[in-house]
Each structure stands twice: as structure tokens, then as C-alpha cells.
Amino acid sequence: MTSAVVPMKRRPVPPSPRANRFFGTANRLRRDPLGCMQEFVDEAGTASKYRFFAHMWGYLFVHPDHYQHILQDNFKNFTKLPHPTFLLLYPLVGKGLLSNDGELWLRQRRLAQPAFHRTQIQEMGRIMTAASERRFARWEQAARAGEVVAFDREVMELTLEIAGKALFSVDLTGEAREVGDVFGRLNELFVKLVVSPASLYTMRVPFWPSTRRVTRDIGRLDRLIYSMIDQRRSSGTPGNDLMGMLLSARDEETGESMDEKQLRDEVITLLIAGHETTTLLLTWFFYCLGRYPEIEAKVQDEVDRTLNGRMPTFEDIPKLVFTRQALDETMRLYPPAYAMSRWGNQADVIGGFGTPANAVITLCPFITHRLPELWSRPLAFDPERFNPASKSDRHRFAYIPFGAGPRQCIGEGFALTESVLVAAAIAQRFRLRIPDGYAAQLDPQITLHPKGGMPLRFELR
To answer: Which of 204, 233, 353, 365 has its CA at 20 to 30 Å from residue 432's CA atom?
Structure first.
């Protein structure tokens, strides 16, 4: 049945959880977005209409059937947010793949897609393992000293180095720490701004402290990105990596190449996406192995049998079955993209509930991945959920760590290849130990981080 059959005014609206009539749920969402959305589900079910602030309302949908409708069946009605809060991200990502819609998004997606084909990723595999191996001496020294390291930062520097080299043929080894720090500050700041109604106004004030910080940090990134573009242009050869494809692109109608601003937007978007997901996946993965030694032992046994002391290659990935299952289970419990938003352009019906035109729609894979009606023992870490027999009976939208539908993450294959290869390389050489008394807490920024970082201790095997 379509929304045209019955007038929208006769459609039931989703139930609404409790909220202050003026302040709504804005303060609760700012303090604890995941806890607040879980309360919505506990009070109202898998579909809810919540008061965000005063007269501003939003809709939360977390059932796989809802995702199928929003992300695939009627995806053209649900676009990236033109809502003012999304404009807070515009100074960083501009009109890159992350924020674009319509024909421009489709054109840029088609342009970038060849860089993520299997043959390209296979070549990138060598870069991934070589970068990992270069870190081993440093980590071995930390292991012998019994030093607790900020594991999330270590992995972030590694994945930035890999993204720079694999996608843009640029060595970011010297800049990885500074670039990572800038990304981290912007990530933390933007999420605070997005859930603060006042930020819609303060971000328009140039001398406001948060505005000045954003401008300063983005300026640092811009200098790096434009330098990368200038160096490639001056080399006289575009190259066959992602940077080369972007530089060689021509508009089908005008024949013009991308201007500098559009190039910058695409490069910075893909640099962020090319390292952030893998950083968080590997961070949570080794935390989970540290908590579940029996799972760690199975991963290590598989890695040892497959590699026999050598570094992993792209050809080893099909043999590292349990390692991949453990990575999938990590993303079930700790999906980097824990929530996503869409703008409902026209009135629609989602799961039997009516939504008006211009509705702000939020989806939360973090909650979906833990729904008891979809997952037995939902809080347990059990990689066997992802063996072929278990996966065959599951709703295909019950597990969407990379999104779904036409806008599914373009870099999924890149991220999974990198994660398996780096995880296997580390697991063959080290164990990661959790310091006594430490328990990771969630810090839902734009992506799902461990609060205060992830302190772990390397231990030589």
C-alpha cells in the first residue's frame, strides 16, 4: 500500500516519548544521545515522534523494515539534511560525497567508484600490510617496557598513513598525528554544536570562540589538501589512484574539469571516510578480544595457521573467516556510524506511520544491532552470528554498519580489506591487554568513539 491510497491526515503518527514542552529532548540528546534514543525505543517502540526543541520535532525509526523503505525502496524521498544543523558540517566537508545529493552526488560517486574496485583494492593491500609492519618496532618496544598506549591514536595514525598512500599516493606519516588531532577536535565539537539549538546562530558569528576554533582547524586541513592537489598537478601526470581520477574528470556537458574547491571537498571527504571507520573498528575489535580471551585465542589460531609467520596478503582474506566474523560482530556492537539522518522531502508512510513533508528522520543502527527481537543475547560478543548459516535467516537490513541502498558506503570494500589485513598482522605478533580497572565507555561523536580514548597494553606473543 502506498501513501497515496489513504490521505496522510488519517495515517497514525508514531507514539511520542515524554519530553519537556519547551526544551524538548535537546538537553538529553546532547548529554547522552544513545541513551536518549534507547529511551525513545523503550517508551514508544521502534518508531517514535519526539520533540527536539520547542516546536521542532523529529522521527526515530530503528526497525529493519523502516530502513529498507527509507534507504532503498523510496530512497529518493529521503535525502541528506538541508536542515540548518547539517550546515554546521559544511565548512569541513563542503559538497563532497558525504553531503551531496541528486545529480552531483551521482556524478561524483560514479567518478570515484573505479578507485574502489576489487583490482584497485588488491593493489592497496600491499600498502596496508607494509604500513602495519613499519609500526611493529615501536609497538615491540612499548610491549617490552610494559607501557600502556593510546591504542586508538596509534591505529588512527596508521590508517591515516594508509589512506594517504593508498588513495592519494601521498606520504602522511609526518602529518598523521596533527591531522588526526584536528579531525578529533572537529568531530567532538561538531556533535556538540549539532545538538545545541543555540549553535545555529553562534556558528554564524565569526568571532565566536567555537567558530574561530573551527575556522582555524579547517584552515590547517585546507593547507594540507591544497598542497596535495598542487603537487599532483605540478607533476604533470594525474596517476591512476583516486586523486588522479578526480583530476582527470571532465563534466559530460561542458568538458570542464573539477574546480579547486570541489576537488578539495572530495579529497577531504574521502580522507576522513578512508580512515575513520577502520580506526574505530580496529580499536573496538582489539578491546573486544581483550575482554573475551576465548575469542582472541580462536582468532590467533586462525591467523597462525593461515600465515605461518609471514605478513598477510589480499589472497589470505578468504581464509581468515573467523577473523572477519569477529570484525563483523564488533561492528554489530560498536558501529562507527551509529546513527544517520535523512530529510523526508514529501509526506510518506513508514511502517504504517505517517510522516509529513520536511520531516527530520533519524535512523540508529546501534540500537537496531542490539534489538532483542532480532538478536539472541544481543549484548554478548559472539562472532558465530556471522557464520553463513546464521546470516541466511537474518533480515538483510538488520545489520547495516556501512549503511544500505544506493548510498551504501563507497569505501566498504576498502575498509573491510584494511581491517582484516591489519587485524591479522597485529594479532599474529601481539596481544592487546586491557589495564586493570578499565572499562570502555561510549562517546558518540559524529562517529562512535571510546570516551577518553582506548588505553591498551601491547604484549608480545
So the answer is: 365
